[in-house]
């Protein structure tokens, strides 16, 4: 969508066929263009779902390692100048790696796993995510940010500055949003409360659930409760 808008807005002198080729290379979908029938390996560079070794992964790993102060794998994940990149060869139309680089590939996925486990899904990260969601929901009728996701002229302006703008507002109905923002700044974060099938059954039988048939509640037992996450977040 953003690429189409860029081609339409600026005099780039790109043919429609080249546009589809570039979109195919970006998305990794070789069926989008003619080039996908002759040079398959080109569609394994930016995004390659088959093994996950691509520029997209190496780029965000390098970015996030730098952001959180994890330095050990920055050089390895640089997408343009690494031993892994220079040792690759195209064999039978597919990008292949030397066996001596097996440990480098292992380190790539090990770092990815570490980021997901220790950073992206850390309890503090998740708590702040839920708080940011609440801020945006409260401020929606003023900022209308959800409406701008598909408006290409406005979407690039949906940055972290939005939170500073909210924090500087005066309307009283945005006071809860400002309070949450202040809690983030002072590390007064949401707490995680663990839930169990037993606690769900107990709550269901002791709380008046509007719109729920009492016969269903009466038949509810622990073995009929399936928990996906295992916890909930509370303010």
Overall description:
- The chain has helices spanning 2-9, 16-27, 55-67, 83-86, 102-120, 123-143, 161-167, 175-185, 197-206, 214-219, and strands at residues 89-91, 94-96, 191-194, 231-234.
- With 235 residues, the protein is mainly alpha-helical.
- The strands form two sheets. It has a two-stranded antiparallel sheet.
- Helix 3 packs across helix 5 and helix 6 runs antiparallel to helix 8 (175-185).
How many E-type strands? 4
**How widely separated are the two ends?**
37 Å
- In N-to-C order, the SSE pattern is HHHHEEHHHHEHHE
Number of helices, counting only DSSP H or I runs of 4 residues or more: 10
Beta fraction: 5-15%
Give the helix/strand class. Answer: mainly alpha
Helix content: 40-55%
Mean pLDDT: 83
**Low-pLDDT ranges:** none
Shape label: extended
Q: Order the strands across the largest sheet as they lie in space.
A: 1-2
The biggest beta sheet is recorded as:
2 strands, antiparallel
Radius of gyration: 24 Å
């Amino acid at each position: 969508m953003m690429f189409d808008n860029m081609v339409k807005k600026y005099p780039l002198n790109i043919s429609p066929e080249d546009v589809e080729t570039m979109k195919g290379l970006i998305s990794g979908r070789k069926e989008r263009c003619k080039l996908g029938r002759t040079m398959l390996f080109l569609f394994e560079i930016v995004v390659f779902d088959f093994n996950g070794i691509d520029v997209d992964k190496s780029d965000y790993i390098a970015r996030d390692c730098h952001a959180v102060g994890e330095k050990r794998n920055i050089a390895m994940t640089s997408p343009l100048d690494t031993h892994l990149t220079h040792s690759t060869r195209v064999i039978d139309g597919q990008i292949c790696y030397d066996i001596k680089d097996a440990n480098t590939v292992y380190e790539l996925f090990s770092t990815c796993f570490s980021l997901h486990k220790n950073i992206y899904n850390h309890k503090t990260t998740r708590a702040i995510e839920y708080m940011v969601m609440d801020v945006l929901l409260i401020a929606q009728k003023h900022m209308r940010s959800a409406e701008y996701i598909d408006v290409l002229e406005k979407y690039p302006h949906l940055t972290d500055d939005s939170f500073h703008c909210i924090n500087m507002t005066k309307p009283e109905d945005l006071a809860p949003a400002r309070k949450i923002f202040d809690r983030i700044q002072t590390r007064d974060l949401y707490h995680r409360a663990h839930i169990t099938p037993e606690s769900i059954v107990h709550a269901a039988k002791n709380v008046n659930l509007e719109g729920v048939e009492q016969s269903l509640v009466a038949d509810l037992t622990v073995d009929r409760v399936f928990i996906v996450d295992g916890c909930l977040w509370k303010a």
